[in-house]
Amino acid sequence: MADGLNDLAIVPITSSDNNYFLRKVTGLKIDKTYSFKFQWVLEDGTLSDWSPGYQIATPTENVPSAPSVTVPTTSTGSIPVTLSSFPANAKRVDIYVIGGEFGTGKVADYFLSAGTKSIAVAGGSYQVSLITVTPSGINGDPTNTFTINVSTAGETIQAPTNPNGFSIDRVLSGIQVNWAGTYANGTFTGFEAIKIYVGNLATATVGSYKEAGVMTGNNVKNAITIPVDGTYLRYNQPVYIHAAAVNKNGTVGTIQANVASDSLGARSAIASDLADQIISNAKLVDDAVTAAKIATSAITTTKIADDAITTPKLVANAITADKIVSSAITADKIATNAITAGKILAGTIDVSKLAAGTISVNNLEAGLITSTSYIRAGGSTGARVELSSSNISGGPSAGFYIYNSAGTAILSAPLTGGLSITGGGSFTGDISGASGTFAGNLTASNGLFSVNNGILTAQSGTIGGWDINGTQLRSTGSNYITLNPITPRISLVKTVADQFGGAGTITIDPVEGIKDSAGNFQLTPGGILTLTGSITASALIINGSNYINSSGGFSLGGGIMTYSGSDILVGANFKFVPDANGMYPRIINDDNDYGNSSSVSINTNGELTRGRTFYYGSNVIPGSGNTSRAVYNRATNSYQTIDFVAGDIWMTVD
Question: Which domain holds residue 136?
């Protein structure tokens, strides 16, 4: 047989009492019942029979309360967590973090003593809670959830650095400002944008300039187009560009005056800007062409239609045929408004006949800008807006597009359908669609909300009266239910007493089982039931003072046992048997041997006697004629004659 003591991994403990073996069993789990048996190992190596079984229940650990902790609302590069005091009966305190690399929640670090921990993380928003863990691995109640916004570490946000490398290109009705993406000191970390200002003075004097746009590409070529405004940017007048850098903290650097300039400013239309005969009579409003706009000798006899000059236009007898010599009629000889659009032959006036600045926005009739090709606001590169009805070779694509200063499309709306927007923004009002399906994934910029392949991920929220966060699911209201997936535990909490009962909490968890907060009831996972009240069943009632079956035939309470049946059997050989009147019970000790001279018995007269008790299987009663009886001795497997002695109790079997 196996050595039971070794099997139990017993560790000896020194004792001054050599009559006892003191042993300590280690490695047991809490709140669990263990069974033990013992046997002797004799000197010759033989083993005794096993002892009766013994059961021992190990104690239960209490679930620790939430620890005291401090987490700031903002930080740079890390999450600082301070544990003010280390909880009693704790193995460690876990730091549970949600967000960023920790996703929907992980243990990021832990405390073994009070102090401060710094958890290095990327920039973003995080949620933090702490949970005490006992030596046996029980998770306590979590702390409140702390939200902290962390700035990115490792990136130095420099003060705005002066940019350089600017130039100007004159374009039709404006200028294009170019930036090489360089800085006076070589680098600028923490770049956000370059603000561009346009002005009419070389010095950035207040009132002489305005902000005209921003360049958002760092260390790359940028370009934006600034249109004529008549004050700060004019035709054929000097223009000056100023610039200022902006860092990610929102700090705007000192304006650098006159980083680029051009003595002629915006450019008017030239012949190459307009196709031949592009300006027709229908495109000119009345009185659009004045005498001052007609070049010398521009109008010749071949340009004047028959009967174009009528008598009302001439002073009587002022001009006679003999008075007009070659080249006699020049522009200065024609009165104001004398020549109207109706008097100009189609195709007669082309771009070469128009003075600089003649055609401007102010000279175009509202609603009459049309194009069979495309419209572009800005240059062919850099920041621009393009609108085209078809794909143009070497030009815009069909649709509507907006490009940033680095030439990257930040809004695309092709004619084939669809809309793509790059970058942040804001929207007010409702978004609705008659039909359609949202395709792709949706993620908030801070990473706290996402819809990915049909899976919704969020840090917290309220759905149908249930509050959800990274540590628990809880119903709203003064009386509520919580589901804690970390412990894990389900709690039914009643905070206000009413007609249905008083306040209290019932919890369910895998360590303590089911219990109430007042300590009146507990059912452990080990099957141990603890009650302070009564149990009522269809055939049994158990309370603090009685154990009663439903018929009342048996009860045990106050140290008194009541039984209405016939015999009470204790073990295999011991009975309480009442007489025919239900009184004076006889005690039968069927030991099939010689009996025990020190036993205590009750005789048929109700007298308590002491003596040997024998069982001999007949109804021969000791008396004057019967002074002995043969009794079987199991030790020798033989019968032996035993004389009757005063004080003996002999029992018969009828």
Answer: 69-145
